[in-house]
Design goal:
The chain is α+β, with helices and mostly antiparallel strands. 42% of the residues lie in helices and 10% in strands. The protein is built from 16 helices and 8 strands. The strands form 2 sheets. It has a 6-stranded mixed β-sheet. Helix 3 packs across helix 4 and helix 11 runs antiparallel to helix 12. It starts with 28 loop residues before the first helix and ends in a 14-residue tail after the last strand.
Length: 478
């Protein structure tokens, strides 16, 4: 007989007539997504394993064919960047007061890791598991792995453990703050806090849950310190902004590169829709209106799919308080979202949208203002956080860009080139400008695009500063 309760949260399942597949097993998309993550835990990561993998990838590089060389170098660079992050975390934790862990507890077999440093001693990589390190004896054929607690990890093994969760913790911090830069800083802060608090890790929860709890509190501390709230854009003297209502101004809002999403957020059919939606810029902007604890409860419950009890434990409060926070947060969120969900919900970009983007980039490079204008909706909105400039309506937007695209204008900015990318599940484009009298195209602005229903025209452009280009794999110069 089929189960009548959700296997994740234990809540009763609604009537399932006509529902098939996993939709008939879980009570919500959040529970379905959480179940996937639990089934697909990160692979065991070791520092020695990373070093070995870098060596293998480097050894396979050959000059020809060029496409294969590029792919190989890209994969090698990714592995090196991961090892660099592990090394940085290990260095930072070792620099903590009292942070250096020299002795490793002796195992029941009487071996300590320090003996590997003796002349002739062998160095056996120590794989990191969900709860700690597998002992060296696990490398022997038929040997079993006995996880050690987090408290027994040295700096390097601890860094390897946390690296497994870096991307998903960073996405969590981004959802909480709306800022890519702050999310990066908060990840490092989370790992340092975890290192300091490792003695208090009881192993009742997984390391992942433990890190999420620490990351949430790091985000809450930041939000309390800054106490920032969204404002409305104000008119800039001498500038025609259009006849529409001034949009919300969130000076700290930044885009998030799709390529940096965890695999479970980026590639999986069963969770891709929900993941893209909870990263869409419109929703991220709406979340910024919520008080800190309401925001945390909403993100933990609706984006991560934690149960009310797990959310209460992470926030060190009661289930009743969590439910109360959600009851207040959800109506506030709806107030700041477009009435029609289809107007803002991020879906996989269509061929039609890609074709519009290609025409848009070509028009920019040709300085073809007429074609650009035809690709915009009449009520298109342009904002440029953190800058104060904003425009509602096609006429106001075109008037703003006309002077910089006209070679006869004294304010002509130069010639443009564009490279496509993806941000927050949406199509985006990195724009470069070659100023008059120069020969180099330099990063100028990163545009994230939202399309009208049907994808025939662009309904919103959110423009961001060029220092974010490297996070999107875009060069700063062409």
């Amino acid at each position: 007989m089929a189960a009548e309760v959700c296997p994740v949260c234990g809540d009763p399942l609604a009537a399932r007539a006509g529902r098939t597949g996993r939709g008939s097993v879980y009570c919500s998309a959040a529970c379905r997504q959480k179940a996937y993550r639990e089934r697909h835990q990160p692979e065991v990561l070791t520092v020695q394993g990373l070093i070995d993998e870098i060596g293998r990838r480097a050894g396979r590089l050959t000059p020809q064919p060029p496409a294969a060389l590029y792919t190989g170098v890209t994969e090698l660079a990714t592995a090196i960047a991961q090892l660099k992050r592990v090394a940085r975390t290990a260095r930072d934790t070792a620099a903590e007061p009292g942070g250096s862990v020299t002795p490793v507890p002796v195992t029941e077999h009487g071996t300590a890791r320090d003996t590997a440093a003796e002349p002739g001693g062998s160095v056996t990589p120590v794989p990191v598991t969900e709860h700690g390190t597998a002992r060296d004896t696990a490398a022997e054929p038929g040997a079993s792995v006995t996880p050690a607690p987090v408290t027994e990890l040295d700096e390097t093994d601890f860094a390897a453990l946390t690296e497994q969760y870096r991307r998903e913790i960073q996405v969590h911090c981004y959802r909480m703050t709306g800022s890519y830069d702050e999310a990066e800083d908060l990840v490092q802060e989370t790992f340092l806090r975890a290192w300091r608090a490792r003695d208090g890790f009881q192993g009742r929860a997984s390391a992942r849950t433990w890190l999420y709890r620490i990351a949430t509190n790091a985000c809450l501390d930041l939000l309390r310190r800054t106490a920032r709230r969204p404002q409305r854009y104000e008119p800039v003297p001498g500038m025609h902004h259009g006849d529409g209502e001034p949009p919300t101004r969130i000076t700290w809002l930044q885009p998030y590169p799709d390529d940096e999403l965890p695999v479970s957020e980026r590639e999986l059919p069963e969770s891709a829709g929900e993941s893209r939606e909870t990263l869409e810029l419109v929703l991220l902007a709406a979340i910024q209106h919520l008080p800190a604890r309401q925001r945390a409860a909403l993100v933990l419950r609706d984006a991560l799919g934690l149960t009310a009890a797990e959310t209460a434990e992470a926030l060190e409060t009661s289930v009743a308080s969590v439910n109360s926070a959600l009851q207040r947060a959800r109506p506030t969120l709806r107030e700041h979202l477009p009435g029609d969900r289809a107007d803002w919900r991020a879906t996989e970009p269509t061929r039609q949208q890609q074709a519009v983007l290609d025409r848009y980039m070509a028009a920019v490079e040709r300085l073809d203002l007429d074609t650009m204008t035809a690709l915009l909706t009449e009520d298109v909105v342009l904002t440029m956080p953190p800058n104060p400039f904003w425009f509602t309506g096609r006429d106001a937007l075109v008037d703003f860009v006309r002077v910089s695209l006209d070679p006869a204008s004294p304010a002509f900015l130069g010639h443009w080139r564009s490279l496509p990318t993806r941000a927050n599940g949406q199509l985006a484009v990195g724009n470069y400008v070659r100023r008059p009298g120069t020969s180099v195209f330099r990063a100028q602005v990163l545009d994230v695009l939202r399309f009208e229903q049907g994808g025939e025209r662009i309904a919103e452009i959110t423009s961001f500063e060029p220092h974010l280009f490297p996070a999107f794999g875009l060069p700063l110069k062409l």
